[in-house]
Amino acid sequence: MAERHRREVLFVTGTRADFSKLREVMLAVQDSAHLTARIVVTGMHLLRRYGYTVHEVERAGLQRLHLIHNQVEGEPMALVLANTVQALTRLVHEERPDAIVVHGDRVEALAGALVGALANIRVVHIEGGEVSGTIDDSLRHSISKQAHVHLVANESARARLLQLGEETERVFVVGSPEIDVLTSHRLPPLDQVRARYAIPFERYGVLIMHPVTTEVDSISEQAAAVVDAVLADDRPWVVIEPNNDEGCVQVRHQLDRLTGDRCIRIPSMRFEHFVTLMRNADVMVGNSSAGVREAPVLGTPSVNVGTRQRDRSDAVGVVTVPAVRTAVLDGIRRAAALPRHPGVHEFGVPGACERIIALFEGEELWRPPLYKRFVDRWVGEPSVA
Question: Which of 79, 185, 211, 362 is the most exposed place for a label (fewest CB within 10 A)?
Fold first, then answer.
């Protein structure tokens, strides 16, 4: 009997966030008897200001890494996209993987989806069909329209993809790989996390403020409001550096005002360590998805500032406020006083990694053709306008 072809899966990772969610899937594909893995490492991973997190990819034990430098700080997102498409196209033309796996809503994921779609290589999109705010929604839905297979967290995400005209046999509800980490019993203890990152506080808040790419004219003012509120609060703060989207320089300029022995800034953290940090925090504040998605799973109250995550969560532990100093400060005090409600989430059921690998090793994921049909699903009567 002929030996079964080992299908090659190429993963694209551009940030500490998507890598933390893809890591266990990457390792399982690498260890599979039926699959092989290649990893494209690009984006923020290769920028020293953000911790040069390619080292985290290497330390995870992943092999066959392809490093693509797709940007220097300050380049516009459109140019980063173009750089990534060009480099990925050359790699894919040479290697011809059986599938390209992308996650979420970053420009590197869009590049991977575009390259795969145009090269007739199966694109698998993990955690599409979600809504958040700003340009991220447009990027995420664009990636979904290029993808041939969707691995989504929940039924709501599945319904949105069907609304986008996707065929039912292309959409699999598997849960988010992140839920496996968030509910793990093997997370490092807080003392270990504090020692590793030189965090001197036992009680603290966590601040993560990213630029809002559709509101760059006011991002400095928004960041200033958050920093002013944090300065007015009397607790110690752990500050995580923003991502590298347009406007990050203005955000960092405001964060530079958080000096003294009450604040510590960290460029990047291993995800398991970050989960422990969140779980033990008094409160989170900012506009990161961590505050509205991960924090409710852990029971940590959070203050969601502004519009970046406006459609993301209605969990009881999330207090949403405008980017105004008094509102943010009031939100911090209200959130910190809330009782904890762990387990509130939309990530699906733990075991996502095993379900994803079962699909890759089976045939169902590979069955849908590369030609995609748009399925009309009218809600009521179609508009005649």
Answer: 185
